[in-house]
Amino acid sequence: MKSLKMKTTGIQAFIICVTLVFIVEGRDDQDTVAKKILDKISSFLTPKKVVVPRGPAGPGGPSVRGPAGPRGTSRGATTTYVTPNLDFLYVLDSSGSIGSEHFDKAKKGIQVQVDVIDLKTKTTPSGTHVGLIEFSSPAKTHVEFTLRQYSSAAAIKAAVGKIDYDNGGSTATADALRLAKKHFDQYGVRENVKVVWVITDGQSNRGGNPKIPADELKKNGKWLIHYQHAV
């Protein structure tokens, strides 16, 4: 698993993606880093071209599918562009080393990202879903809210704002990723783009090597993105 490293003023950001790998070097301010992160979210939401054939004829009616059209499409078929829905799961570090100030900044960042996601593809019961896992020590790692719990950007942002800082004693990233896989198995059964966005301050120090559950997510065709603050 490779990483995208962005050197910033006061912040180091690392993005790990199991499918696409970009390498960026240089010093950027926080606004530039934020834009790159939002651009990455937008890349998941590129509209896809879909050819939709018309349905079969009704009783006694003529067939709606005529001779083959250009490029192998059927006459009467329509072409449209559809923005993919997301199953977007945040995994938020709440360990003692983060500190309450940086934890609050991370929450505000999530709220901004939720607005961007909602602008591109609506967060609705049948559209994009957003959930959040909060983690620190194994005993405190938990699902804060599920992918199906809230169906609007306003409700998601309100829930994020109410998350308490756990101030846990360790950073059990592997446990959090294992919980993410279980959560997708239960709540992420739709044929959507699946994203895991991990926000943490440093190396995992409990629960084993996080690469193992990360690879399990990869086997299931899910994306893994890791964004790291150095505090």
TrEMBL record:
It comes from the Eukaryota. Residues 87-231 form the VWFA domain. Pfam families: VWA. Residues 52-78 are annotated as: Disordered. PROSITE patterns: VWFA (PS50234). Gene3D superfamilies: von Willebrand factor, type A domain (3.40.50.410). SMART domains: VWA. InterPro entries: ECM_Assembly_Org, VWF_A, vWFA_dom_sf. This is Uncharacterized protein LOC106159934. It comes from Lingula anatina (Brachiopod). The lineage of its organism: Eukaryota, Metazoa, Spiralia, Lophotrochozoa, Brachiopoda. The gene is LOC106159934.
